[in-house]
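This section describes the prediction task in plain terms. A model, or a person checking by hand, is given the sequence of a single protein chain and must write out its three-dimensional structure as a string of tokens. No templates, partner chains or ligands are provided. The sample shown here is typical of the held-out split.
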Amino acid sequence: MNKLINIILGFIVIGFIYFFFFRGTTVEQGSLAHDFTTELVDGSSFTLSDLRGKYVLIDFWGSWCGPCHRENPKLVTTYNQFKDAAFKSAKGFEVVSIALEKKDDAWKKSADRYGFSWKYQIVENTKFVMLSKLAQKYDVTNIPSKFLINPDGEIIGVNQKFSEIAEFLSKA
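The expected answer:
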């Protein structure tokens, strides 16, 4: 009986290792961004496709994530630099931040600390943060993760450096 339990546990561990470390992403540059509808932190409803016509940067982060804390000032700088920019083929630029959290309030302190001033802020609370609905939809296995979307809803950048995003948006 113990041998059977060990075999089953072994398969479960291998499954988790595959899921979190070796599974390839199906969300890649050139593919259409997965649409979703959810609730923003202000309680209003949000659908990603409502932002068609604009450049959109989806940023997955967490208040518990050290690398996210290093990236957040760059995210804020990028948003402030391009939020009012005029683009040749787009009606603007928006950031959609998705906090993957275990606790309700931890994200708020971090968002306030860095000056997240954009409207499209989402928090997904789950016991296992990488199993959140939106993280799974975008095949996010580690954070921070970023997806730059063009006005047609196509992903044009995955996990680019903020300098690359800024360079692209400056030319657009």
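For orientation: The CA atoms of residues 18 and 24 lie 10 Å apart.
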